[in-house]
Design brief:
This is GlsB/YeaQ/YmgE family stress response membrane protein. By secondary structure, this protein is mainly α. It is built from 3 helices and 2 strands; from the N terminus they run ββααα. Helices cover about 75% and strands about 5% of the residues. It has a two-stranded antiparallel sheet. Strand 1 and strand 2 form a beta hairpin. It starts with a strand and ends with a helix.
Length: about 80
């Protein structure tokens, strides 16, 4: 079973890395578990949105980039809600 061309375990690891990179980029103070969740959710949601527009990407590098962008957007949305 795979998620966008990567295995489930690889998707979790890549999602965690994407979340960690997003935390560093956005200067957010979240824990490791939250980073993993943000990276995975960001990747899944953004992949779903891109697929709805006919832009589907597969592979670990695309999953990392999309997860990073999605996690950054989730961090920004969380900050906007808190204000």
């Amino acid at each position: 079973m795979s998620v966008n061309g990567v295995g489930i375990l690889a998707a979790i690891i890549i999602g965690g890395l994407a979340g960690w990179l997003a935390e560093r980029f956005m200067n957010s103070q979240m824990g490791l578990f939250a980073n993993i969740i943000l990276g995975i959710i960001g990747a899944v949601v953004l992949n779903f949105i891109l697929a709805a527009f006919g832009m589907a990407y597969t592979g670990w590098l695309a999953y990392l980039v999309i997860g990073f962008i999605g996690a950054c957007l989730l961090i920004a949305a969380g900050r906007a809600v808190r204000r």
